[in-house]
Amino acid sequence: MREISAGGVVVRYTPDGWEMAAIEPQREPAATIRSRKVGKKSQKMLLALPKGLIDAGEKPQHAAVREVFEETGLQAQLVTKLGDTKYTYVRTWGDRERVFKIVSFYLLSYASGQIDVIDEKMRIEVKRALWIPLEEGARRLAYRGEKQMVAKALEYLKNHALETETTNFTEGKT
Known about the structure:
The chain is an alpha+beta fold.
């Protein structure tokens, strides 16, 4: 089984420097999380990049922009492709089939929207979305391939002038 997905490293410039959008995926069904007993050991926060499957006939870069909006609430503009990650996983639901997955990641510039204002139906996938300092992204994200994409985004921003005026930080302030 193969899956082809796309995602993005969304950046904005603030007075404190570059920030990136990250998501905390749901790790349990929402109902289970709400009914958790007080005093039970809590899970460590897992952070990831927004990403998802490419729809039939959709270009990967368009899927990345769409997935970013669906999972974070942010409108973003394509800057450049950062690269692809490849890995395998075993589905934890249904058939427990082994899946080979390829994810194309893009550097995206924040355009508008408010972080974590997403459609309620997305809460089954996304616990929350938040801004974190880009410099901390490689350390704070959970997955090796995504950490590499953040490092590539940092390198790109160091070597290219990205219009900071288009990353107006006041619109997306949390």
